[in-house]
Design goal:
This protein has 364 residues and is mainly alpha-helical. It has 2 domains: 41-83, no CATH class; 97-326, Orthogonal Bundle (MetI-like fold). Helix content is 70%, strand content 4%. It has helices at residues 2-11, 31-60, 85-92, 106-136, 143-149, 151-155, 158-168, 174-179, 190-216, 221-229, 234-262, 266-271, 282-291, 295-325, 328-363; strands spanning 62-64, 79-81, 96-99, 102-105. The strands form 2 sheets. It has a two-stranded antiparallel ribbon. It has a two-stranded antiparallel sheet with strand order 3-4. β3 and β4 (102-105) form a beta hairpin. The N and C termini lie close together (10 Å).
Length: 364
């Protein structure tokens, strides 16, 4: 009986130390080294991004004094703390403007324009970029020249691109001559919105195309050969092989383009001009307030845009985060450790069951 008990005690699992397991399966105790390596980058982000955001938050809580101070009778100067009044005034004092969405508040109009440009431009850029990547991934003569040439629109500065497209969309420009119809693309109307979309898609579709091409080149040719042997059509190969395997790179490209389009400023400013409500974005609206000397209100509009971008990025990563941060190696390590934990649990249960049976037999 003593032997059975000692055997059961030897087979019993060791008591837990109380420490929680590491959440990062790839850390392996190298968190200190990782922190040291990324510290320069985090310092740059803090200086370039973090501090300006904190200053903008501080500025949004103050308002510039103007007029006559009722206490002293002197001209008020400096600024005073107003708390959240700059934010409440955004919705308490609507300014209706004529735009594509009817006579709506100027802030709502800028919000709708920003959302419209983001959705339409990113969808078109994704479709065209994927098509460009598939074409460039084929083996043909002059493929290197084609790959280099699509970088030209992306390399041109946005303001230069805006002026170039402004000349083409002019009333006497080449676009109207080719279309054979006189359209006021640069006026404040619906056509100006689509002029911005065309110019933005032309400039940034190559960005998605290049990132997608990088993902396509990681797909082995043997996969397509096996699919063709099994009788899969070109469309089936695209849906079942190309799209799933290129999805991680494509998701990153679409995320970058979404966040970049949401802060669009220079293209509509340089191409259509200021004061055009059909193309006015949140970034332009915040700039107008700042240019008018209303720094607190401008900071409030900037914070609203920042929160909007953060919300979209959070939802994007929340819904597709596994495709952004995951990879086959990480999944393999996770599966292996999950299997090891499952096996260890089964061994503990078997050990406990065997100890119970041994103890019962010895007692009998």
């Amino acid at each position: 009986m003593a032997t059975a008990v000692e055997t059961a005690g030897a087979d019993a699992p060791a008591p837990r130390s109380g420490r929680r397991p590491k959440k990062n399966v790839l850390s392996d105790g190298q968190g200190g080294l990782a922190g040291l390596l990324i510290s320069p980058t985090m310092l740059v982000i803090l200086l370039v991004v973090g501090i300006p955001i904190l200053l903008s938050v501080r500025e949004s809580l103050f308002r510039r004094n103007d007029g006559i101070d009722p206490v002293t009778g002197m001209i008020a100067q400096g600024e005073s703390f107003v708390g959240l009044q700059n934010f409440t005034d955004i919705f308490a004092n609507p300014q209706a403007v004529p735009a594509a969405w009817g006579s709506v508040d100027r802030l709502i109009n800028a919000f709708l324009n920003t959302t419209f440009f983001t959705v339409v431009c990113v969808v078109l850029e994704t479709a065209i970029g994927v098509a460009m990547a598939i074409v460039m991934n084929k083996a043909f003569k002059g493929r290197g020249l084609v790959r280099a040439s699509i970088l030209v629109p992306w390399a041109i500065p946005t303001m230069v691109s805006a002026k170039m497209w402004g000349l083409m969309f002019d009333a006497d420009g080449i676009v109207n001559k080719l279309a054979g119809h006189q359209t006021l693309w640069l006026a404040d109307n619906n056509a100006s919105q689509w002029a911005i979309v065309i110019a933005d898609v032309w400039k940034t579709a190559p960005f998605i195309g290049l990132l997608t091409l990088a993902g396509l080149q990681t797909i082995p040719d043997e996969v397509y050969e096996a699919a063709r042997v099994d009788g899969a059509s070109a469309w089936q190969q695209f849906l079942r092989i190309t799209l799933p395997m290129v999805k991680p790179a494509l998701v990153v490209a679409v995320l970058f383009r979404t966040l970049d389009t949401m802060r669009m400023f220079d293209l509509p400013w340089g191409m259509i001009g200021p004061g055009k409500y059909y193309v006015e974005t949140l970034s332009m609206f915040a700039y107008f307030e700042n240019d008018a000397g209303r720094y607190g209100q401008a900071a409030a509009y900037s914070i609203v845009l920042f929160l909007y971008i953060v919300l979209v990025a959070f939802l994007f990563v929340k819904l597709l985060g596994a495709e952004v941060v995951d990879d086959p190696e990480t999944r393999a390590i996770q599966d292996r450790r999950r299997a090891q934990r499952k096996l260890a649990k089964q061994q503990r249960l078997s050990s406990r069951a065997g100890s119970t049976v041994t103890t019962g037999s010895a007692s009998s």
